[in-house]
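STRUCTURE:
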């Protein structure tokens, strides 16, 4: 559960490879953030300084969520996640990520 002062944004991407991308993202960041946890269905990367990335995979796609203490950090997190996902999904056109602020 996030801190009430934390800002959050979420995006959903339709793909049959959701679990694979979730695993790639989490494994990639686990080298720098050892408290990363993940299963084929859910991953959490605690980036530190009030920043966190969460991903949930199902048969229809991948739900991505970023949390940060301020808008600048949240916007930066959105870009970092989108860039890394695009890199891992280079064989598939996922389109652009449409981030929505969530409570």
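SEQUENCE:
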């Amino acid at each position: 559960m996030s801190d009430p002062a934390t800002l959050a944004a979420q995006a959903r991407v339709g793909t049959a490879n959701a679990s694979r991308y979730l695993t790639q993202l989490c494994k990639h960041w686990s080298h720098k953030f050892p408290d990363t946890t993940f299963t084929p269905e859910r991953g959490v990367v605690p980036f530190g300084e009030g920043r966190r990335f969460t991903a949930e995979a199902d048969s229809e796609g991948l739900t991505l969520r970023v949390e940060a203490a301020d808008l600048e950090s949240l916007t930066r997190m959105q870009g970092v996640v989108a860039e890394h996902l695009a890199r891992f999904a280079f064989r598939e056109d996922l389109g652009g990520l449409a981030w929505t602020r969530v409570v």
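REMARK: The chain has one domain: 7-102.
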